[in-house]
Amino acid sequence: MTHKGSCFCGAVEIAVSGDPVDMGYCHCQSCRSYSGAPFVAFTIWPSDNVAVTKGAELIGGYNKVGTSDRKYCTQCGGHMFIDHPKLGVVDVRAAILPTVDFEPKAHLSYAEAVFAVSDDLPKFVDFPAEIGGSGKLVDAAD
């Protein structure tokens, strides 16, 4: 299956194919600062399954920490995706892909949360161990 999405103005379009590797919410300071929101909803796809189908020349980028290449439309500023080349995956914000059934699996960087979320999803202090985090969960009493 292929899902299509675009930036805020529609000048840049992307397509993702297959199934996402993961979905969830990130509460880290970088995601909050970049998005202007208390947390973001993400979908993770294998790099080979994400393609820019229109407006590639309008994509700008910013890499603050050396591991995450944030991509946006230079025409409207709309966030598009974050390339994680060392992990071989691309993070596409859930809102960019309206036809994806968003089924979050966890909260990441919940120790940095500024907004409490009451749900039954695991809440990682940072990230799962499989992607370089501690794998530790936030204590339910926190």
From TrEMBL:
InterPro entries linked:
CENP-V/GFA, Mss4-like_sf
Please list which residues make up the signal peptide: none
Gene3D superfamilies named in the record: glutathione-dependent formaldehyde- activating enzyme (gfa) (3.90.1590.10)
Keyword Translocase: yes or no?
no
Query: Out of the domains of life, which is the source?
Result: Bacteria
Segments forming domain CENP-V/GFA:
3-103
**What are the UniProt keywords, alphabetically?**
Lyase, Metal-binding, Zinc
Classification via Pfam families: GFA
Specify whether Cell division is a keyword of the entry. Answer: no
Family statement: Belongs to the Gfa family.
Q: What is this protein called?
A: GFA family protein
What is the organism of origin for this protein? Answer: Sphingopyxis jiangsuensis
